[in-house]
Amino acid sequence: MRPIQKSQKLADVCYDIRGPVMEKAKQMEDEGHKIIKLNIGNLAVFNFDPPDEIVQDMIRNMQNAAGYTDSKGMFAPRKAIMHYTQEKHIRGVTIEDIYIGNGASELIVMGMNALLNIGDEVLVPAPDYPLWTAAVSLSGGKPVHYVCDESADWMPDIDDIKSKITPNTKAIVVINPNNPTGALYPVEVLQQIVEVARQHQLIVFADEIYDKTLYDGEVHTSIASLADDVLFLTLNGLSKNYRSCGYRAGWMVVSGEKRHAKDYIEGLNMLASMRLCANAPGQFAIQTALGGYQSINDLVGPGGRLLKQRDLAHKLLTAIPGVTCVKPKAALYMFPKLDPVMYPIKDDQEFIHELLTEQRVLLVQGTGFNWINPDHFRVVFLPNTDDLTDAFGRIASFLESYRKRHGTN
User: Fold this and answer.
1) What is the full DSSP assignment across 296-359?
2) pTM above the 0.90 mark?
């Protein structure tokens, strides 16, 4: 039989958060091993529950959720999202500028599919949430990674961005708050990115899914609030701030300079219609979530579980010889660095595989987030403090063994 092969469009697509090492972890679980998973921001499995009023609203409306909705989404949740954009000081947004999707992930792919031709380039941060890179590649475009500077608290390197713009550059992706680093960008940095977009007529794709998951009194600024003469597509949803990953309720807001984007917006409308609609039960959760009590503040504020776990994870990580880490100001992750002299890693996926095999702890290697060198990994600090302490003890033991094997102890 002739082998059936995957599409060549997938040649440059990868998503190592659920990649080969996770497959190994599943195999080990099937064999009876208990794996501590620090690889994915799936809040429910760590007993972070969605607000009860969201759950009850979905239950009450389930009888009304069997039919297709408008291809862009129901009126009430879109109106609630419109009000939310006003709270974020994003001007000029109407109901028709809002698209509800099966999570923000669907809308990321839709936004790129509607925009890109073969060879078009999109500036994507390094490190990034890898779906952005994958969506550009899958849409026929070329992801071009601009560097975020670890020595400057993971801020985007504006000079590097400027150096990578070509006549083929169509857009720039800004992930703020950032996954995987936990960085939060100040207004000054966002204004510089807006100015670059303005000068080169770039679309700004703003991933703001963690805009309420902020620590130490930090404040988030939506980049789309800073200009009216640049086209912005802002993505958000219920997955993280409202611990509702499985509800797949996300949205995309088109704002700014829309007059010259009529054809592109027509493409977005076509793709929204082709998928018929986003899931209706998840849509029923949006209005209640945005208008209700913001319980995320209890988790990230003084005494909150997420704040405690962030502080513990950072303390335990940075106590390990040769491990440094910028303390995250937002989101659910940190992106520690391994001293390349103490840890001469050639293949960081193999390194993570060895950690899993020896210590039953599952992480994701830094190159899985399109980082340049095999010297980082991403940590999710969602497990409770006992499990985090256990996990980082195992990581410390593995790294001590690694240093001894390589004579760098």
Assistant:
1) HHHHHSTT-HHHHHHHHHHHHHHTSTTEE-PPPSBSSEE--EE-TTTS--S-HHHHHHHHHHHH
2) yes
